[in-house]
Design brief:
Radius of gyration: 14 Å
Order of helices and strands: EHEHEE
Keywords: Methyltransferase, Transferase
Pfam family, one: Methyltransf_11
Oligomer: single chain
Number of helices: 2
Organism: Nocardia brasiliensis
Strand content: 25-35%
Protein name: Methyltransferase domain-containing protein
InterPro entries: Methyltransf_11, SAM-dependent_MTases_sf
Largest sheet: 4 strands, mixed
Structural class: alpha+beta
Number of strands: 4
Length: about 110
Amino acid sequence: MIRWETGTAESLPVSDGAVTVALAVATVHHWPDVAGALPEVLRVLRPGGRFLTVERAVAADATGLGSHGWTEAQAKAFANLCRAAHFTEVRVDRHAMGRFTMWAVHAVRP
């Protein structure tokens, strides 16, 4: 069963261990406290649960709306934050889809 909930990344309205997969699509770059939100994502995932984030790839010198997404360095920094929050199997993938390029960070709750 798929159930949609609305909340902030820092305070998810979900019970401990209730989530199999958590998705954050084009949102992490808006989170006010990324490092503070990751323990909350970890809390709601069941053991073995997966966390997937996807952000548009942007140039390091992008400004305005063109900067909404991640540079390669930002994707790697986010992956390091996931590791520091005790996620395992963390990896960063770059995906090119037509004229769009995306960064995906995959992580697993141990």
